[in-house]
Design a protein that fits this description.
By secondary structure, the protein is an alpha/beta fold. The chain has helices at residues 12-19, 34-43, 45-51, 62-67, 74-84, 98-110, 125-134, 149-163, 176-181, 191-199, 217-220, 227-252; strands at residues 3-8, 29-33, 56-59, 88-89, 118-120, 137-141, 167-171, 186-189. It has twelve helices and eight strands.
Length: 256
Amino acid sequence: MTTLYLGTIGTAPELASLASFKGEQTEPAVLMSFYFLKQVQKTNLEQYKTIRTFKTMLDSGAYTAKSKNKKIDIDELIKEIKEGGWDECAALDVIGDPRKSYDNAMYMKKAGVSAFPTFHYGEPFEFLAEYAKNFDKVGLGGLVPVKSAADRNAWLTECFSRIWPKKTHAFGVMGRDSLMRFPFHSVDSTSWEAGALMFGGYAFANGQNLGLGRGKARKAVGSEKYLRPEALHYLKLEKEVKARWAQEFKKQGWDK
């Protein structure tokens, strides 16, 4: 069934909001970045432990590392995947270097870890074919900067035409139109908390935008109560998406 992972960098408000769902009928699936993992374990350990009882995906953190001019140690990532008990994991990709991304994915596979590779927007499609041949699931990424919905949909359509019914994970995709249009096995996005943490605008809190401006944003992030309605919105969307693709996924044996 389709899984919508709520991405988090592990701030206290984010984790408190997510942890508040513990024991409820529907708990959110959570994506965490390997880049932030040690810091989260150090500063928010109890909330982190609660989150880890949910369905979780570990992202390699490659994009964040590149933006900060840092590097991810692939062997440390492999060690975490082997010992961490994550439900799903993404292989270490190299932004702008599809050959190195492919080599990393194969290196991790040979090391005995189950981590899916990511094919990025604009990369040669022969890499997508190789990923589909060698892995049970393929990530589709690099779409966040693509502003044109038509271009984004055209690329996704091309990807699906080449590898369906291979399982796919879409990075940074959480729009209802895309989720209803394409049978992703899973997706993730930080959009549930991005407005609150960046601009102080809580789009779904009590069904309204609270209108908090940029100047007040950093004061607003301490109030995790406004993040819970954001998460609830995406849990409701996940339910709709699951229903949309239920029959197709059952046909593929993905209904568990």
